[in-house]
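**User:**
If convenient, please work through this fold.
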Amino acid sequence: MASVSDADLKKMTQEERVTALGMRTEQLTGKSLYVEFDPDAEERFTYPWAPDVDFNKRTEIDCDGKTVTEVNSNIRELMREGYGTIVLQNPRGMHSLGVGILSKLNLIIEGSTGYFAVGLIDGPNVRISGRVGWSCGENMMSGTIMIEKNAGSTFGAAIRGGDLVCRGSVGSRTGIDQKGGTIIVGGDTGALSGFMMQRGRMVVCGNAGKNLGDSMYDGTIYVGGEIKSLGVDAVEAELTDLDKKWLTRKLTQYGLMPDKGVDHFTKVVAGKMLWNYDNLEPSEKKLIL
């Protein structure tokens, strides 16, 4: 804390320093995530300033020769004019395209994007006909994103809601720190996918790289192919009839249902052995500080 000097810290006991630095030694055994949900709280699901758009009102933006700031500003201007379907042409691998859209919209990107495409969104339905770079859909809150080809690493990092779908393969660290929503990969995923996953579901129709689900706290990962290795505290679990029904519905919805069905999928969950945090953790944090 800013009010505690180094000299004061040196005079304290270890426990006093832990308290002064805002650290805790609370044991998390037996605890789980709890989400309060009130379906009648409409104000939690809409933004009062969000534009009222018409999906049948369609227009195009040619990205060629424009900066990403200009393109993203054009999107917002057209939404304020009521356009509910916007097509981006010639994106040519532009970074940070379509970020921060916080209302309903049909956004169609004809081509490939660079890093951080359509991140921080809450509501739009996005279709990308090409490839995407790193961190596509990062911190997505609701809506859908469909990528027709491959995606880079950290696909869906810290996603909180909605459906993020890639028909092709994705890089490493897919769904790192995932907090909700659904990530679906039609092909393979790289190493450390599902790292520190907290909630939500991830479906990989192909193979998964090493250390799948490493240090995951909660959530579920389904893999249709081979798993190179499981990460720390990630364990296999029984694939129930409810899992199979959900997988069938989701994969059919996005045209990714395997010919042989879903009975062969492996289900991975948290072993929950890491829910006990060692009492040495505060002193380790102190060394970092």
